[in-house]
Design brief:
The protein is mainly β and 204 residues long. The protein has one domain (11-21, 32-190). The chain is built from 1 helix and 9 strands, in the order αβββββββββ. Strands 1, 3, 4, 7 and 9 form a 5-stranded antiparallel sheet that branches. The chain is globular, with a radius of gyration of 17 Å. The chain starts with 10 loop residues before the first helix and ends in a 7-residue tail after the last strand. The model is unreliable at 1-5 (pLDDT under 50).
Length: 204
């Protein structure tokens, strides 16, 4: 939980307020939680500029490439989330053994990945438009550090239940990540924040 809220509104207040507009008035009685939702897509090391649509069709992928499960790019009934930050990373997967070797934040691979662009859509409505990965570079963002390479959103974005969401990433100059022999490269998008999950009995 962050100690300072630039908007003057806590994530929980934003979460309840937005869901009330959708008629989800019971959200305030749900269990509060912290959430990290992620999805991974294959990176083509021989292509030029590429566009990735994370979470779209994620129900067809399995853990550990994603943790969305059968809900795919929709939160389940009674679930909701405030997105407070976004991280973009890369890693390697051995084609034979499926062993994963963790990489790093994408901008650490090559400096020009700072020019990558992020868009975020909820129910076909664009709520984040053309934010660059420069925001994950601690040289340009006061909220990042050596161990914290994420985009800290100035505006908290609420994901209501059952509405589809997609994170679109456009990267320049593919072929700039060299994997170990017999390995594929994957990119991973993480959305991080405060959530609410269904609590039929009690909350803690």
């Amino acid at each position: 939980m962050r100690e300072i809220y630039q908007s003057g509104v806590t994530p929980q207040q934003k979460l309840v307020g937005v869901n009330n507009k959708f008629g989800n008035t019971g959200i305030k009685d749900q269990q509060g939680t912290s959430r990290i939702i992620y999805d991974s897509l294959l990176y083509n090391t021989s292509a030029s500029t590429q566009t990735f649509r994370f979470f779209e069709d994620s129900a067809s992928r399995n853990f550990p490439l994603t943790n969305t499960g059968s809900d795919g790019n929709k939160l389940g009934v009674g679930d909701t989330m405030v997105i407070q930050s976004i991280g973009i990373y890369y890693f390697f997967v051995d084609r034979t053994t499926k062993e994963i070797t963790w990489g790093a934040p994408l901008i650490n691979a090559q400096r020009y990945f700072n020019l990558s662009l992020i868009n975020f859509e909820i129910a076909n409505n664009k709520v984040i438009k053309k934010v660059t990965l420069t925001e994950t570079n601690r040289a340009y963002n006061k909220n990042t550090s050596t161990d914290n390479n994420v985009i800290v959103l100035e505006t908290q974005i609420v994901l209501p239940p059952l509405l589809p969401y997609i994170l679109e990433l456009q990267v320049p100059l593919a072929g700039s990540i060299t994997p170990p022999a017999n390995n594929d490269v994957y990119l991973q998008a993480q959305i991080i924040g405060t959530g609410g999950i269904i609590a039929p009995r009690t909350t803690f």
